[in-house]
Each structure stands twice: as C-alpha cells, then as structure tokens.
Amino acid sequence: RLLNVNGDRLELEEWAGGEDVIQLALQWSVYVIVLCAFHLGEFFTTAVCNPSVTSADSFMVNHSKAYTAAALTSMVEFILRINFFPSHNSPNVFLVGILCVACGQLCRGAAMITCGE
C-alpha cells in the first residue's frame, strides 16, 4: 500500500524508493501539464494572431510522425528511468529543463505573433 491510515492521519509509506518516486511522479505531472500548455498555447496563439486559418487542425497534437515518435520516446524514457534508475534523479536538472521549456515556448509564441498572416 502506498497510503497508510494512522489514526486520523494519512501517511505516505516508503515504497520503491520513497522520495525518489514522489519526485519522479511530480516531474511526470509537470511534464503532462507543460505538454498540454504547449498545445493549448499553440492553438490560442494561432486563433488570436491568425484567425482566418484557425480550425481544428490548428490544434497540433498529431502533426507529424516525428513528433509522435519524440513524444513516445520521452514517455518510454521516463518509464524506464522510474523503473530501473529511480535514485538517479536531480531536481536541479528538472528545474533547468523547465526554464528551457518556458524560454522555448516564449520564443515560439513571439515568432508566431510577429510572423503575421
């Protein structure tokens, strides 16, 4: 069991690395949130800056085989890492990655805004 009821408190039990697994679960959650934010940001930027071409196809979830391969590879990498190397985890690398994603998204949004129709 992952949760243990102790009187009126819920306690997280040590399970498969304890804090490492919790950190990885947090990272996976942030990954999914960022992925969703990326796609929504692409769609809304297209809708605001180029409304004449906005359609359901503007929501670029499956826009290429390369994107699908990259997304699946990242998910497989994460699953392998959590199963085989849960203690090889660095919150600092995670934070640097988040900063890179934020900067990349801002640059992408700025490029879409300035390119016009």
Rg estimate, integer Å: 19 Å
Say how many strands there are.
2
Q: Specify the number of helices.
A: 3
Give the overall silhouette: elongated
SSE sequence, one letter per element = EEHHH
Span of the ends, CA to CA: 55 Å
Average predicted confidence as pLDDT: 76
Helicity level: 55-70%
**Major sheet:** 2 strands, antiparallel
Describe how the helices and strands are arranged:
Layout: E1 3-6, E2 9-12, H1 19-49, H2 65-84, H3 91-115
Antiparallel strand pairs: 1-2
Helix pairs in contact: 1-3
Give a concise summary.
Helix content is 65%, strand content 7%. The protein is mostly helical and 117 residues long.
Structural description of this entry:
- There is one protein chain.
- With about 120 residues, the chain is mainly alpha-helical.
- Helix content is about 65%, strand content about 5%.
- It is built from 3 helices and 2 strands, in the order ββααα.
- It has helices spanning about 20-50, 65-85, 90-115, and strands at about 5, 10.
- It has a two-stranded antiparallel ribbon.
- A hairpin with a 2-residue loop joins strand 1 (about 5) and strand 2.
- Helix 1 packs parallel to helix 3 (about 90-115).
- The longest helix is centred in the first third of the chain and has 31 residues, at about 20-50.
- The chain is elongated.
Label this structure with key terms.
7% strand; mainly alpha; 3 helices; 117 residues; two-stranded antiparallel ribbon
